[in-house]
Design a protein that fits this description.
Order of helices and strands: EEHEEEE
Number of domains: 1
Strand order of the largest sheet: 4-3-2-5
Number of strands: 6
Oligomer: single chain
Structural class: mainly beta
Shape: globular
Strand content: 25-35%
Number of helices: 1
Length: about 100
């Protein structure tokens, strides 16, 4: 993500996990949407402090490329298949590049 001079107040990444794909193979069941956010706690989807809305830190510095990472363990997604992702800003602008799973 690259911030601009008109930085957002909050950035939220939503991962979508459907129950049918999340409870196969003996894995733990995860229903619905898992969210991680940076910056202000003003996008009130989910419950703050839970996997439905987990604070990841302050906003990145504007005007440079940064990699936003969400450890799967921090939001209960370790070993879970994710069906989709969405990126949300509150106010401001950002430019996005690739999104997906890293092999760390």
């Amino acid at each position: 993500m690259q911030g601009t001079l008109y930085s957002p107040m909050s950035i939220l990444i939503l991962t979508i996990c459907r129950a049918k794909s999340c409870c196969s193979g003996g894995r733990r069941r995860v229903d619905g949407n898992i969210r991680a956010y940076w910056g202000a706690n003003i996008i009130d989807w989910g419950t703050d402090g839970t996997a439905s809305r987990r604070y990841m830190g302050p906003l990145p510095v504007a005007g440079q490329w940064v990699r936003l990472e969400v450890p799967a363990e921090a939001v209960g997604l370790a070993g879970i298949t994710v069906d989709g992702m969405a990126f949300t800003l509150y106010d401001g602008q950002a430019t996005w590049d690739f999104g997906g799973k890293s092999q760390n």
